[in-house]
Please model this.
Amino acid sequence: MIAELGHFALILALAASLAQGLLLIAGVRRGDAAWMAAGRHAAVVHPLLVAVAFAALVACFVGNDFTVKAVASHSHTALPAAYRAAAAWAGHEGAMLLWATMLAMWTLAVRFATHRLPLDLACRALGVLGLVSSGFLVVAIAVSSPFARLIPSPAQGRDLDPLLQDPAMLLHPPLVIAGYAGLAVAFALALAALLDGRLEAAWARWSRPWVLAAWCFLTAGIAAGALWASREPGWTGWWSWDPLQNASLMPWLAATALLHSLAVAEKRGLFRRWTVLLAILAFSLCLLGAYLARAGALSSLHAFAPDPRRGLAILALLASVAGAALVLFARSAAAPDGHGAFEMISREAGLAAATAVLVAALGAVMLGTLLPLVSEAAGLGRITVGTPYFTAVFLPLMLPGLLLAGPGPRLRWGSESPAEALRDSVRPAAAAAAAGAYAAFAAERPGAWTAIGLFVSAWIAWHVFEAVAFRWRLESRWSGVRTARWPEASFFAMHVAHFGVAVLVAGISVSNGFEQSSEFVLAPGATQALGSIHVRSDGPREVEGPNYRAVRVRIVVREGARETVVEPEKRLYRTSALPVTEVAVDAGLARDLHVSLVEPAGAGAWIVRVRVKPLMGFVWAGALLMILGGLLAVADRRYRAGVAARGGLADAALALAGSSPR
Model:
């Protein structure tokens, strides 16, 4: 009965989302306040119905309803309750419903934030979101029904893929898809502006907090996925340029470029058409990521539940959405792009250069990711593009953008004195040179990218410190005691995010450049050393998990006067009979220690792999600082200001929709 309720809610949600899209877009075009009010009501009903459907699917999984095909395919009675809930989005069907749910939640957020936007723009944006949601709901109902019945049904399910039985499964897919769906709001606002024919600077200000929020979700999702991958030995590290990792990186690069372009469009009214094109590109890449993740078109270690037949439905949706948007963009060629002059050394020039760098890096990742697919489709055979390509192409392309992240925020709008810009860079350059020299001489086998990474990290960090100190001195005043007025949130947001980039780059450079790894036989009571770290085995023991059996080895790690205990495991899952290695991690800001069991060596001894990654905690700390910077920017009071006045049709539509015009 719960499954039928969910299926019925999905059908009603499709009707509501179509009504939302058609009534709002047609209502604005006709100037019909009643249609606009009805469409705004539908923008509330549609998300609520999708939420009911998603809750019904989760209830089917948690309740072990194996008459539902998706539950029988991805769950099991012995699966812990948290993983039964997470299994709801493990398959193609649940992933499409999760997409529709996240789109619906963003739609609801936009609906209740329309008092901050001109009504015509808000209605058009909600209309576009309704039509995009309709596409996903059509796929969820007609192609990937999450509530399809399985008769006869098994007494127990096939179980969730053992690799997915990880706490990160609860966070990584929802966060990434929330980021993808959030970029649909930027896409909808861009198309609304094109339909309106007015690409004003105010449009960029209205769009920016939505892009920032989506960027934060996507950053958090990618970081959660990288943390997950770092604990899976078969996934070859926290970042391996796997096609599915690249599928989430590409929209992130586009969204980051969009944020920089929006800053110029908002402040100076420039690059408006380019900004619209970036908004279209960012969401189109999200749909491409959904296709790559679910179609099985590319070989990936991270792929799960691929379905080429149903992946074609996502490809058709991508073609429809991106095609319609590009046609509309081409028809608006006469729309103004803003006017204004700026010098080569200025904030505008720096932001434009950073945007160009990010787009170039995005092109390199897209080429490396899609080339095997294109080659095979052209009958040229399957080629492999791996880490050497990305190291040789992506990193050099990103380097100028990272270098701009230091002085860029300190430049003035319009024009900056070359002498002043050079003077501001002297101390950061000295600190960066010292950091790069340390990396070159401290490592036993110095790597060029390690030295370059530490140079860039120190360069950005020192610029951030000097910018904050200068702003503090500028805002200070003498009145008997020295006091200071705090700058606005956007100032801190920008510098916190850039400092996060510096911390992230330092973590990547040091962890990759100074990593130590070794394998040795560890018998009970025996001790082995890796540098200053000593590990001792207290022997193995068998343990019973909820749906697996495991051998667990208690290992004591001694580093100086500090002792910790880690317990790596070798698991065998009962239903699938798949062995899985569970890495034990002793994490810290200074270093991460990974200990894993390779294979038994007899008499209680095991071959153990130990890896020490210095400053790996900086990678996660850097990601958190970047997210914090994004959240601070969203909280800026400029984005909480509403539209000052509305009149005539706008007031009438708000009254019919049950909202106050103020």
Summary: The longest helix spans residues 347-377. The chain has four domains: 1-165, 169-414, 425-514+617-629, 537-612.
